[in-house]
Design brief:
Helix content: 25-40%
Number of helices: 14
Radius of gyration: 21 Å
Largest sheet: 4 strands, mixed
Strand content: 25-35%
Number of strands: 23
Strand order of the largest sheet: 21-22-1-23
Distance between the termini: 11 Å
Structural class: alpha+beta
Shape: elongated
Bound molecules: ligand EPZ
Length: about 425
């Protein structure tokens, strides 16, 4: 078990370029399977989920070269649609390959994906949509076998704007005969970026970033290169660390129009936050203000991935705040670990009531999932003493170098 150590009490100062976006690059890696040629992705974060996806792609016959944040994928000799089950269990994004493999090969074998334990995380929306597009999917609760002579376009209305389901449908629709219309599509930046990438590959798509996306499948694809945008959640995590520890931090390499709701919340917390298109600066030199109510919701609302880091910041507020988690039913678990550091957080159903404390103290805590682990580092940065975060591998799935990054800003953080 890895342990991330943080010695609190050091304000964060300086400038840092943010890593590429995990949740943007993973569906693009799956999209590369659609094309019998070469795809080049740059600014790719060197994180565990990317290496896991690389292992899956190599296992099914994609040739991969990954060095210095540049990923070259050659899917011209793709052989198999059978995804290694041990990899499927490691991350949610493996399910993205279902649509891409059905589009490319007409077959796929996978299982229920793993990933952060933040709720049930069903895949019913994915399977319903692919069946509507002509896939025959046998699911015995463990193994999922899918096949099709040829996918065809369909009008799909999602009961929830699922990010993953929208991505899976986009990849399947790119190869399907005819037109696919996705109603109530997810509008997250990761969807917009995936649509821009697919368009660059040669896929005809309209409505990117809106709730109604239209794809005309079957067009010829081409060699494509694409730069992955900065990770908006990693950027938000580091802003949270600066808010908790105090200081003056400037982050670059991140497209701030994708972060508006989170940036506004840091202002509501009393931080001085200014930004341009590709950079954001936060100054925090006074006690955090409470936020009476913040609700997570689909984009452009406050992102669920920022909920735990914000909870860590509000643990220091001069008053009572309430966070309502509306996306994942088990994503407030970070509260119990923060209480081990002296926070006063009461969880009832999907709400956390946070009675801010002037001070938290270093403690032994455990990362329950990726963003909860990062949130504990946020809280530890402002705490008195050393916090030891036992981590069974969550943090490194999404943060390339949280220790070095925070050290660059004057923090005392080490594995
Ligand atoms: C993606 O997960 C992200 N993961 C998550 O980030 C992020 O929190 C989430 O989108 C919401 O923005 C990746 O991109 C790899 P959903 P995903 O499908 O696709 C329900 C992180 O920390 N649902 O939008 O799984 C589901 O149970 C991770 O980087 C169904 O009911 O999110 C949940 O309540 C964590 N049936 C809600 O929709 C389905 O078939 C949102 O899920 C699919 C989803």
């Amino acid at each position: 078990m890895d342990t991330l150590k943080v010695q609190g009490g050091y304000p964060l100062r300086g400038e840092l370029k943010v890593q590429g976006s995990k949740n943007t690059v993973l569906p693009m890696m799956a999209a590369a399977v659609l094309y019998k040629g070469v795809t080049v992705l740059t600014n790719v974060p060197m994180i565990r989920d990317v290496y896991c996806m690389i292992h899956i792609l190599e296992t099914i016959g994609v040739r991969v070269v990954f060095s210095d944040h540049c990923l070259v994928l050659d899917a011209s000799s793709l052989q198999s649609g059978e995804i290694p089950l041990e990899d499927v269990k490691k991350m949610r994004s493996s399910i993205m390959l279902l649509g891409a493999l059905l589009g490319r090969l007409g077959e796929a074998v996978t299982s229920y994906p793993g990933g952060c334990s933040i709720g049930k995380r069903p895949i019913d929306l994915h399977l319903e949509a692919l069946r509507a597009m002509g896939a025959d999917i046998q699911d015995d609760g463990i193994c999922i076998r899918a096949g099709t002579k040829k996918l065809h376009g369909a009008r799909i209305s999602l009961r929830f704007p699922s990010v993953g389901a929208t991505e899976n449908i986009l990849l399947a629709a790119a190869a399907a005969d005819g037109v696919t219309v996705i109603e109530n599509a997810a509008r997250e930046p990761e969807i917009t970026e995936l649509c821009l990438f697919l368009q660059k590959m040669g896929v005809r798509i309209t409505g990117a970033g809106t709730g109604m996306i239209c794809v005309r499948g079957g067009s010829g694809l081409c060699d494509t290169s694409y730069q992955i945008p900065g990770d908006r959640i990693v950027a938000g995590t580091y802003l949270a660390a600066a808010a908790a520890a105090g200081g003056d931090v400037c982050l670059t390499g991140v497209y701030t129009p994708y972060m508006t709701s989170a940036l506004q919340v840091f202002r509501d917390c009393g931080c001085d936050v200014t930004w341009g298109k590709e950079h954001v600066r936060i100054r925090s030199d006074r006690r955090i203000l409470p936020v009476p109510m913040i609700c997570t919701s689909p984009y452009p609302g406050f992102p669920t991935d920022m909920q735990s880091p914000l909870m860590a910041v509000l643990a220091y507020a001069d008053g009572i705040s309430v966070i309502e988690e509306n996306i994942f039913e088990e994503r407030l678990n970070c509260g119990a670990q923060l209480c081990r550091m002296g926070a006063d957080i009461q969880i009832t159903h999907n709400r956390a009531r946070i009675i801010g404390q002037k001070e938290l103290k270093g403690a032994w805590v455990e990362a329950g999932d990726l963003r909860a682990g990062a949130a504990l580092a946020v809280a530890a940065a402002g705490a008195c003493g050393i916090t030891k975060i036992a981590d069974p591998g969550h943090i490194r799935r999404g943060y390339e170098a949280i220790d070095q990054d925070l050290q660059m800003l004057g923090g005392k953080v080490w594995w």
